[in-house]
Amino acid sequence: MSVFGTRPEAIKMAPLVKELEKTDGIQSVVCVTAQHREMLDQVLTLFSISPDYDLNIMKEKQSLSSITTNVLESLEDIFNKEKPDIVLVHGDTTTTFAASLAAFYNKIKVGHVEAGLRTHDKYFPFPEEMNRKLTGAIADLHFAPTLRNRDNLLKEGILENRIFVTGNTVIDAMNYTIKENYIFDNEILNSVDFNKRVIMVTAHRRENWDKGIENICKALLKIKRNNENVEIIYLVHLNPIVKEIVYKHLQGVDGIHLLSPLDTKDTHNLMKKCYLIMTDSGGIQEEAPHLGKPVLVLRDVTERIEAVEAGTVKIVGTNTGNIVKEANILLNNEEEYYRMSKAVNPYGDGKASIKIVETILKDVVEK
């Protein structure tokens, strides 16, 4: 049984679900919590996934406690009915931790996809760092995207024969979504001149709600005013706190387009067409290197340090002046831009889902 609840989880779990569906010897059951509703549904439609169970837990201004308790209580009956041999969860959401805990309470094996990411600070990112650590303590099979992720798990006492380095399933997903001569579903994007230097922006993390988002917006204003040949596309998260700050500072500014989150196809193909990406998203740090796009990370830390070491990603934080400085380097220094865009993607070959399914067949089905 695969359990997931947010759009990022769904994007990364979708190619794995498709691989499970077509594999002899495996009965694949999908349960979504709908921790995010609208954004989750977009991905399910794209990959033609019809969940067997939909908990539909999303509520306005939902708390972490309510998500956790709702998932725990709802999964109890489903596990009793389905009796899965293994529950697959992804990454570091509250759905991930709660589903893992529910499986543990029912003595069901847990497979953790995208295991081993760490910042070693329990409040950055919050609550993700503890979600993934607690899930790691419960999991029986750890599917680590990289060798560094594996090493993090080994340091925490996870047995080496329980860790499997697979690459990241998000690269698998891009094999489904990237198209040549792509026409966007969002008509505003079809009107954008991609001969200009288009900057794609996403910023929504809880850790940036205080002053971070505001500082990012101020930086975008300066970047646009100082660079005539730049267009900025900000994909504004649906969270009302984020929307209020972004629209207060950027609404109506010429050359800055504020769009609601795009579906996965539009997002991936926008990444392919744009010049530069600025983000606090973890997934984008993995996706962009596959497309040769430099990424400026709008955070003070990242658990995806492999991309930093590879040179495809640079951490710039949320200081307005620093964001402007680093963006201007990539906009005006062709040598630096070329260096970042040509660095090797550290997140695999697009066959992570196959490797995960092969492991499940050997470790769960055959046993």
TrEMBL record:
Keywords: Isomerase. Its EC number is 5.1.3.14. GO terms for molecular function: UDP-N-acetylglucosamine 2-epimerase activity. Residues 18-360 form the UDP-N-acetylglucosamine 2-epimerase domain. Signal peptide: none annotated. The keyword Isomerase applies. Gene3D superfamilies: Glycogen Phosphorylase B (3.40.50.2000). NCBIfam families: wecB. Belongs to the UDP-N-acetylglucosamine 2-epimerase family. This is UDP-N-acetylglucosamine 2-epimerase (non-hydrolyzing). It comes from Clostridium bovifaecis.
